[in-house]
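User:
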Amino acid sequence: METRRTKNGRLRSAVTALTLVVAPGIVVVGGAGDAVAATKISHATATSMFRDVGITWSSSGGCSNRNNATCTSFDQLNLTSAQGAQTLKRASGCGLNITGGTETGHASGTYSHWNGYKLDFGKATCLTNYIKNNFTYIGLRGDGAAQWQSGSGNVYADEGNHWDVTYYNCGGC
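Assistant: Predicted structure:
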């Protein structure tokens, strides 16, 4: 174990890795340094959370297998991503349909779909207007997608037929 001072001068112990199962379908994973622990949830937990606020989901394959790119899966989704979707639904009042989750077939990276940070939402006028009228335009992503950032720091990228959302947090839940 390593002990260091935080920015405010307090001593802090850092554990290099920690995995803790807190409830069926929920796993807390933490890492060394200043990384924030990500709570992973199951597909069933996510769908229950989405159903509770009226968010729908669909897949071109009509399935939820994480290892099938034509499915829409929420297995290993970060709890904050699911909460962020709930926050978006409540704040916007828009109908939301999730078309992409943690299934294979998306771009890789730390803040990726596979790692539980991203959800894709089907395009709808209400959602597009809400994002463009309430968030800050921050320019084009490397692939040319226009991006808007919420006040909490989550990023909404317009990928043409859907919104690709990166949830760094729950959006003020």
